[in-house]
Structure formats: structure tokens, C-alpha cells
């Protein structure tokens, strides 16, 4: 139970600070990564490298600033060999790129941190902010805003295209109360971000400057990161001087990306329309405009590169067809068939193939006499 004055102070904070939106956190998993753009012997423009350290870079992304290897400056990565292995940074920023898929990219996170001494004085105070306005990137719904601490209130403000303010509170009175394993509201709270957000600032504040919890929780942290990759370990995280380092090396921010700022309908008539043969255009669902290209069903490869997507030969891979005997590949699909002298739909799990003569054994006997 919280003492009455703490509750009062809490209520005051809630009403005097900005309106807090406490989002119910139910992750909708609609944007699972797909990796068509990596499926081809050649995934870059001619003469462009495909690898920066551990990162594979498929077109429309490219390695080298002003190299022409990417579809635009924000798709070009600065591959720095000052590190081993080399690191890829987006354009001229210090944002590191880690993984590129058909609709998303994973980038480095920034962590807000605030530490107090036993008297409640601030000894360290870093805020975290990020601004991707004017770029093809926006924060994915796979991220959450996380706050770690036992006497903490943190707000996250959006700027620019999304007028957004949210935040959460985490309170606990002893290390024993903290539940590790998931972000439950005790020692760790989390809230959602709206789709299409391109910029945010996170600010940490405290109810009692950690004076009541300083024995086990000198610091608090706030960051935006991929929900599925953050592992809250409970009280041990509170006293871990390496907590920020661990989170920075394991948790990424997922960003959605799109080409241009036009919809498919608008882009299809423009001369720099990016989708090549046998591909489809998909409008970005962030509300910011832009589109992506996707191979038609039954086709694969990088839809942004000539010659476009090519037919998948389903017959060559037993996992891709369900034919019992004969498989005939066709553009975009395949058909099953039966050898001469047999009939049926030719599918495993369907009618399969049945020999004509095995159908009439009794008739045969009758005729034979
Ligand atoms: C999350 O949403 C799904 C689908 O809308 C629903 O079935 C599920 O019960 C929800 N989970 C929680 C924890 O609210
Ligand atoms: C989303 O769904 C995919 C496939 O169903 C799964 O592999 C992935 O872990 C899910 N991600 C989240 C954040 O739930
Ligand atoms: C590329 O990255 C390196 C290492 O971070 C940096 O020193 C350099 O200035 C960057 N180049 C540009 C053009 O931003
Ligand atoms: C974010 O960047 C854009 C474009 O560079 C700029 O116009 C805007 O003022 C920046 N926003 C903040 C909050 O810094
Ligand atoms: C917390 O610290 C701030 C400034 O350091 C001070 O103004 C405030 O009174 C302190 N609050 C508590 C509850 O100690
Ligand atoms: C926390 O500390 C403040 C003053 O520093 C005190 O008034 C309050 O009762 C304490 N709260 C708890 C839960 O111990
Ligand atoms: C801190 O964490 C990083 C990443 O997990 C690890 O590489 C490093 O060795 C750790 N440092 C200490 C002092 O534990
Ligand atoms: C859309 O992109 C074009 C070309 O990059 C640019 O000139 C234009 O200002 C952009 N429009 C908006 C609304 O951002
Ligand atoms: C294969 O694709 C063609 C052309 O799109 C279509 O007419 C045909 O019905 C498809 N066949 C099957 C078995 O899906």
C-alpha cells in the first residue's frame, strides 16, 4: 500500500503534468518481417557491395554515400571500417543499421538515464531523443516505450507529424517486490507508440528522487525498443552498472520504411516508379505516404531490381508443391497431374493418382469369362 501523501502527489503529477495516455499494451503482430529482397543471387545494383560487416544490404538500400547504390540518400549507408567488424550508419547520421527486411529495418537505440545519490540529488541526467522527420523511416508498432525504475515517471513526446504524448509510472518499495521475466508495472512499465511516429523525446522524472529506494535502485532508464527483444531481469537490472550497455547491444528499434512520399496510384505514373516486372505496389500503412514493392504470389527476388521478380519453380522443391506423381510448373503457380494410364487430381491429401485398370478388377473377371 502507498501512503496517502504519495498517492496525492501522484494524482497531482498526473493532472499538472501533461495528460497521460495509459495505453493497454496488446501487441498487434501484423508486420512480420519478410525477406524477398534478399532472395536472389544478386541483390544490389551492378558494382555495389552487398555486405557491411554482418549486415546484408539489399537494394533499394546501398553502401556508400553518393555512390548511387541506394535509391536515395536516406537509403545509402555509411560503412565505417573504423570498427571491426565494420558498422553501417544511415546516411550522415550516427544511427547504426542492423537488419534490413522487405518492410523494416532495425537500428540502434538511445537510452535516457537518470541517477540519484542517497540524498536525492541528481548525479547523472541524460535525456533520449530521436528525429527521423523527413526520412523514409518511422517507428514500428513492434516497439514499446519502456521505463525501468522504482520511483519513476517518464513521458514520451512525439514531434512533427504526430502530436503525441504518453508515458508510464513504475513504483516499488523493495527489491523483493520486483518481478523479472516480463515488464509488469513493478520495476518496469511500458506503453505503445502510434504508427507513423518519426520523432520523440523521452524525459524521466521521479516522485521522491529515489530517496526511499536508493539502497537498491540508484538509477532509472527510459527507451524505445523492440518489445520482443527486451528481457527485463528484475531487481538485478536495478543495480547493474552495465544495464545500458546490455540493452544497447541486445535491443534495437524497429523502423518501417517506404519509398518516396506518393501512394502507389500516384507513383505508378511517375518515371521513377520503383516496382519492376512481376511485382505489386503496396501502400505504406503509416499515414505518411510512400510505398513498397512486393513480388506477386508465386514469384521471388528483389522487386526493385531488373529483371524484377521471377517465377518460383515449385516443382523443384517438395515443400512447395503437393503433387503425388507429376508436377508441372507454370508462371506464378503449378499444376499436378497423373502419368498415362492413371487418373485423379494428382495431389497428396486429395484424390492422388489411381491406375485405370485397378478400378475394374471385378468387371475384368466377369469379362474374362
Ligand atoms: C490481444 O488481442 C487479441 C486479438 O484482438 C485478443 O485475442 C487477446 O485476448 C488480447 N490480449 C490481451 C492480453 O488483451
Ligand atoms: C510475429 O509473428 C511472427 C510469425 O508468426 C513471429 O515469429 C514473431 O515472433 C511475432 N512477433 C511478435 C512481436 O509477436
Ligand atoms: C561515416 O562514419 C564515420 C564513422 O562513424 C564518420 O567518422 C564519418 O564522418 C561518416 N561519414 C559521413 C559522410 O557522415
Ligand atoms: C526534426 O527534423 C526536421 C527536419 O530536419 C526539423 O524540421 C524538425 O524541426 C526537427 N524536430 C525536432 C523536434 O528537432
Ligand atoms: C527532488 O530534487 C529536486 C531538485 O533536485 C528538488 O527540487 C525536489 O524538492 C526533490 N524532491 C524530493 C521529493 O526530494
Ligand atoms: C518516501 O520519502 C518521502 C520523503 O523523502 C516520505 O515523505 C515518504 O513517506 C516516503 N514514502 C515511502 C513509501 O516510504
Ligand atoms: C557490459 O555488457 C556488454 C554487452 O552485453 C558486454 O560486452 C560487456 O562485457 C559488459 N561489461 C561488463 C563490465 O560486464
Ligand atoms: C515528396 O517528395 C518530393 C521529392 O522527394 C519532394 O520534393 C516533396 O516536397 C515531398 N512532398 C512532401 C509533402 O513531403
Ligand atoms: C495458375 O495461374 C493462372 C494464371 O494466373 C491461373 O489462370 C490458374 O488458375 C492458376 N492455376 C492454379 C492451379 O492456381
TrEMBL record:
UniProt topology in membrane: Single-pass membrane protein
Keyword Phosphoprotein belongs to the record: no
GO cellular component, one term: membrane
Domain EGF-like calcium-binding: 264-310, 311-354
Domain EGF-like: 263-310, 314-354
Localization (cell): Membrane
Matching InterPro entries: EGF, EGF-like_Ca-bd_dom, EGF_Ca-bd_CS, NOTCH1_EGF-like, WAK_GUB
Main location: membrane
Taxonomic superkingdom: Eukaryota
The keyword Disulfide bond belongs to this UniProt entry's keyword annotation: yes
Record keywords, A-Z: Disulfide bond, EGF-like domain, Repeat, Signal
Signal peptide stretch: 1-23
GO MF annotations in UniProt: calcium ion binding; polysaccharide binding
Entry-linked PANTHER family: OSJNBA0016N04.9 PROTEIN
Protein name, as recorded: EGF-like domain-containing protein
Species the sequence originates in: Handroanthus impetiginosus
